[in-house]
Design goal:
The complex is a heterodimer of chains A (about 450) and B (about 450). With about 450 residues, chain A is mostly beta strands. In chain A, about 5% of the residues lie in helices and about 60% in strands. In chain A, strands 1, 2, 3, 4, 5, 6, 7, 8 and 9 form a 9-stranded mixed β-sheet that branches. Chain A has a 5-stranded antiparallel β-sheet with strand order 18-19-20-21-22. Chain A has a 4-stranded antiparallel β-sheet with strand order 10-11-12-13, with no helix packed on it. The N terminus of chain A is likely disordered. In chain B, the strands form 2 sheets. In chain B, strands 3-5-4 form a 3-stranded mixed β-sheet, sandwiched between helices. Chain B has a two-stranded antiparallel ribbon with strand order 1-2. Classes of the chains: A mainly beta (about 450), B mainly alpha (about 450). At the A-B interface, strand 3, strand 4 and strand 33 of A face helix 3, helix 8 and helix 9 of B.
Chain lengths: ~450, ~450
């Protein structure tokens, strides 16, 4: 998850401290301004945080920036200084153990610049591309544009003039390539990165014509830069809209799962028929298909589309974490437990919550889902942070009642089992970060 | 302080059993955590008077800046009383005073120096002159020493800082530098420029900091030399100066293999140790990164390397004749080095630093695996960590892993981070259950055991 701006107001951070005495002191000569901040991701997990400060003015058009990197426990680990245009924002950050990748939007040059740094903070490579031809969502809005591909590098997926493209950026050497499909593949309205293996980038592209949306699953080999295979979303009269791909390394298979629809249904406006799971080989052969339809296979009250946030394979089970929009108010958080044959065996619905994030252990032996809520009781009235944690055997719930004198509180994603609470104190112009462990 | 913690602490302060082999016998009775609030207040008041006299005598030039720094120094010293860090045991103070007296009585130059040496219950292996006539000797350092001559050298070194007015001179030179015409002009130039301010400002700050730190480093060598001068007039052995510096050189070396210790302690048949509990991420962002320090950072170290310090003092020591390793009372020295090992554990617990207390406990358990106090304290700490995690205040009691900490401590912090309440409950219950029959007559143990059982039942 990407957080573009923590707060709209500028927060002053004094760069050097010394006691201030008299009128002219180091403190009142210079200050850094927080430009923007966000999380650093690796394999869809929170690994750290970045803070981009405007630390100096170089000339009319150029600023000096300080990019402060914090680890998952909020320890400062590197400061990176660089000069760039005044019209700069940091969109997204990713990490792959040996390097850090930052995607900047440069409104001066109208480019998206991917800068790759080593873990000592030295700039290794810069990759630039014009963004004016990109679909608006790829150029500025949305999130999840840059993904780590293990130690090899990073990928981004864009839509350009009705066609999708996959960009690969090496973090080992200055190497970049773009995969674009053949000229007859067009009318692409949307792309989604589903996951990766040690050689494949898996994505879902949706073709849209006359209101009919048709999904395809594309695998691009990032070693060769060529398309490895394509699977049509339409099959047996149904359409699969996978939301995640899981690399089943031991079995050398890939699991695709997501909502499925009746063929010719309006995917964007209609309700899904249920959840489907496909096991495919690494060559793209479909090995098994499993369908769970809402009223037949699971008679619980799970109406409509589930906006799936994450699929987690844990201890021979598959868990689906998502949200269901309600027609009148808010959304419900839904967790589903599927057995080793991908049939739903349990569904939990948490009413009217505000989903925040899902985090898991490295091996997914346990994971937690975090959401915020509002509580009104005789004992407490205010915002709560809630977690549902699967401990490998069962779900355990926990709740933090937020009691604070801060003017503004924000809950940010954190490492597995924890949340980051950001408090802003207006009077002292202070931002306070703390990691809280949730049981 | 929670009621749970208050009860547990009172019980532990009652008495302490010492294990003899596998048989637990009440051979020595220690009274831990005894701090006299009235005595602390009296001492604090006494040093506040010295502080007020000091600031009254400050020169008029740059007085505001000087006052600010002297206040910061006093606030730091005062906290040692507020946090009950100063050890008020009259017998321990009397023993420490005898070592100090041996130094002062044989060095007439020190007769008029307002000199007060105190034991601090901190486990940090350090000693310091904190201003206002206060020398603080941390128990964490005292326990690492092997004789009174080594302790005497540490005290002489701190007396040297006081006598040579190192702290005051550093403050004075820092303030003078910061208010010098050269710095003011430089600041004016920077302020008047619209662009590129940060680099010259950083260079200016670095030069001031570097200058200050360089003085501090030079002060260390000067204090060593002066300490040898003081020591040579006493009956203590000056050769122990080198041994002490060698001990300091090795002070941060891994004392235990934390993960192995944890596995040995918490691998129960009914609840086997899980590899996951000690897993950690090694990369830059996992909390255990090995950060590269640059040349400039190295030049900012406040203390020179011990090897360098040894090379500087060795020629003077070689000319001196040997003294006695222990002059005052070697039995008392051994008694206090042993007692203080427990005191630092207890103090870390009472000051809500469960992570440190657990680490010190773990270290001692390697030498004394059947020690009742240490076993009971492990149970008490894990109960405390359980409640802290349930109450979402774990970080108030246990540090998060950080690159700044040594790996052996970081591993313990990671272990705590990897556990969830149900893990802590089961680990602790099984750990205490193993000792139940042996320690059923030891109230602190039974208190920890009962609490753990109640938690486990939930």
């Amino acid at each position: 998850m990407f957080i573009r701006f923590l707060f709209t107001m500028l927060v002053v951070c004094v760069s050097v401290t010394a006691f201030s005495q008299g009128r002219l002191s180091i403190e009142n000569v210079h200050a850094d301004y927080l430009h923007n901040s966000g999380t650093i991701m690796q394999s869809n997990q929170i690994k750290g945080y970045f803070f981009l400060y405007e630390s100096d003015k170089i000339d009319k058009r150029t600023n000096e920036y300080t990019l402060q990197i914090l680890d998952q426990n909020v320890n400062k680990v590197i400061d990176i200084k660089f000069e760039d245009t005044k019209q700069l924002s940091l969109l997204e950050a990713s990490y792959n153990n040996s390097s850090l990748a930052f995607l900047f939007r440069n409104d001066g040059n109208k480019t998206l610049d991917l800068k790759i740094y080593d873990v000592q903070g030295n700039l290794k490579f810069t990759y630039s591309r014009k963004f004016d031809k990109l679909a608006p969502d790829n150029a500025s809005g949305g999130s999840n544009r840059i993904f780590d591909l293990g130690d090899k590098g990073y990928a981004s997926v864009n839509v350009v003039s009705g066609r999708y493209e996959v960009n690969y950026y090496s973090s080992e050497s200055k190497k970049v390539w773009t995969y674009t499909p053949s000229a007859d593949e067009k009318n692409i309205s949307n792309t989604a990165f589903l996951g990766s293996t040690d050689s494949l980038i898996l994505l879902r592209v949706t073709e849209s014509e006359g209101g009919i949306v048709v999904p395809h699953i594309i695998a691009v080999n990032f070693v060769t830069g060529q398309k490895a295979f394509q699977i049509e979303g339409e099959r047996d009269g149904f359409m699969l809209m996978p939301s995640n791909a899981i690399d089943m390394k031991a079995e050398r298979k890939i699991l695709l799962a997501g909502n499925y629809y009746q063929k010719d249904d309006h995917i964007m406006s209609g309700n899904s028929k249920g959840i489907a799971a496909y096991e495919i080989s690494r060559e793209g052969r479909i090995l098994t298909t499993t369908f769970n339809s809402w009223p037949d296979d699971y008679p619980a009250n799970v109406p409509g589309n589930i906006n799936i946030h994450k699929l987690i394979q844990s201890n021979d089970k598959l868990f689906v974490v998502g949200e269901v929009s309600k027609s009148k108010a808010g959304t419900d958080l839904v967790t589903m437990e599927l057995n080793n044959r991908y049939k739903i065996i349990n569904v939990n619905v948490f009413n009217e919550t505000d989903f925040k994030f899902t985090a898991g252990d490295i091996d997914n032996s346990s994971f937690s889902v975090c959401y915020t809520d509002y509580m009104k009781s005789a004992e407490f009235k205010g915002q709560t942070i809630n977690s549902i944690r699967y401990n490998g055997e069962k779900f355990v719930k926990d709740r933090i009642k937020l009691r604070s004198k801060a003017n503004r509180i924000q809950v940010l994603p954190a490492k597995m089992g924890s949340v980051m609470i950001v408090e802003y104190f207006r009077k002292s112009k202070k931002l306070q970060f703390r990691i809280e462990k949730m049981g | 302080m929670s009621i749970f913690k208050f009860v547990a602490q009172c019980l532990l302060c009652v008495y302490l059993l010492i294990a003899s082999g596998n048989v637990f016998a009440q051979s020595v009775v220690y009274n831990l955590g005894a701090t006299d609030a009235d005595a602390l207040q009296t001492l604090s008041d006494k040093h506040e008077i010295i502080y007020k006299q000091t600031i009254a005598s400050l020169p008029g030039q740059h007085k505001k800046a000087l006052l600010q720094l002297y206040k910061a120094r006093w606030d730091n010293a005062r906290q040692k009383f507020v946090r009950r860090e100063i050890y008020t045991s009259p017998s321990a103070k009397a023993y420490l005073d005898k070592i100090v007296d041996e130094i002062v009585s044989n060095n007439p130059a020190l007769t008029d120096l307002p000199l007060n040496c105190y034991f601090s219950r901190s486990g940090n292996p350090n000693a310091s002159y904190v201003g206002e006539g206060m020398i603080i000797f941390n128990m964490g350092l005292f326990t690492r020493l092997s004789n009174e001559s080594q302790a005497a050298f540490v005290i002489c070194h701190e007396i040297a800082h006081q006598y040579l007015r190192h702290s005051e001179n550093t403050i004075s030179s820092y303030v003078s530098k910061l208010n010098s015409k050269e710095v003011k002009d430089e600041l004016k130039t920077i302020k008047s420029s619209k662009y590129r301010r940060s680099q010259p400002l950083e260079a200016l700050t670095n030069s001031i900091t570097y200058d200050t730190r360089r003085h501090v480093r030079e002060n260390e060598c000067e204090a060593d030399s002066f300490a040898v001068e003081l020591l040579k007039h006493t009956r203590f052995d000056p050769n122990e100066v080198i041994t002490t510096l060698n001990i300091l050189d090795q002070i941060d070396v891994d004392s235990i293999s934390t993960n192995e210790c944890l596995k040995k302690l918490f691998d129960a048949k009914e609840y086997p140790f899980q590899q996951r509990w000690t897993s950690k991420e090694e990369g830059l962002l996992g909390g255990h990164a090995k950060l590269q320090s640059d040349q400039f950072e190295d030049s900012l170290k406040t203390h020179p390397d011990c090897k360098y310090r040894i090379s500087k003092v060795s020629p003077a020591i070689q000319k001196l004749s040997a003294g006695s390793a222990n002059v005052i009372d070697s039995a008392l020295f051994r008694f206090y080095t042993r007692l203080f090992q427990y005191e630092v554990v207890e103090y870390a617990y009472s000051s809500d630093n469960y992570g440190k207390s657990l680490f010190y406990t773990l270290e001692l358990l390697q030498q004394m695996p059947n020690d009742p106090y240490l076993i009971a304290n492990t149970g008490r700490l894990l109960n405390g960590i359980y409640f802290a995690q349930k109450g979402h205040h774990l970080n108030d009691y246990v540090d998060l892993p950080a690159p700044a900490y040594p790996p052996y401590y970081n591993d313990l912090l990671q272990f705590v981070q990897n556990l969830y309440p149900e893990n802590i409950a089961s680990i602790n219950y099984q750990f205490l259950e193993h000792f139940r029959n042996k320690l059923k007559d030891y109230p602190p143990f039974m208190e920890a055991y009962r609490t753990s059982s109640q938690i486990a039942e939930k």
